[in-house]
Amino acid sequence: MKDNPPKDLETIVREDGRYPLEAFMFLQDGLKRAVKEVYGERAEREEGPHHVTGQQLCYALRDEAIERWGLLARTVLKRWGINSTLDFGRMVFLLTENGLWQKTEEDKLEDFRDVYDFDEAFGPSSLGEEL
Fold first, then answer.
1. 52-85 per-position pLDDT tens digit
2. Is residue 32 part of a domain?
3. Residue 46 lies in domain
4. Is the per-residue pLDDT at 130 higher than 50?
5. Residue 14 in domain
């Protein structure tokens, strides 16, 4: 039986090496946004976990990225090694496997596959602009 102390986020990110810490901070902000979108004010009043689906999280992350960086969203995410919604899933599952986040039995990495195309989601049309 292993009695290793739980790892903190910085250690997990450093050991994994695929994505920078900033990407995980962004992921956390996206989760907060998704929970608020799904549960509204109830999320602030009620204690305990508030589950969102992989798809709901991906759309919240898209909206958060566009709001923060506009047309630079795709560039920022690419710099972090995030090239598809599946990368969001890999980050989520890294956190769940290390005990920092929770998931249900129904949650699968595949829930994050091809939720949307990054070029379309973060292109000029995502902001209602035409070049």
1. 999 999 999 999 999 999 999 999 999 999 999 9
2. yes
3. 20-122
4. no
5. no
Give the global pTM: 0.87
**Euclidean distance between CA atoms 57 and 31, whole angstroms:** 6
- Whether the CB-CB separation of 64 and 29 falls below 8 Å is answered with yes
Distant-in-sequence contacts of 75-78, Cβ < 8 A, 24+ apart: 77/23, 77/118, 77/122
DSSP secondary structure code for residue 103 in this structure: -
Rounded Cα gap, residues 101 and 94, in angstroms: 9
Token pair of 35, please? 């929970």
Residue 9 lies in a domain: no
With cut-offs at 50, 70 and 90, classify the pLDDT of residue 1: very low
- The answer to whether residue 75 is domain-embedded is yes
Q: Are 41 and 76 in contact (CB under 8 A)?
A: no
Do residues 81 and 50 touch, judged by C-beta distance below 8 A?
no
Number of domains, the chain: 1
What is the model's pLDDT at position 42?
Answer: 67
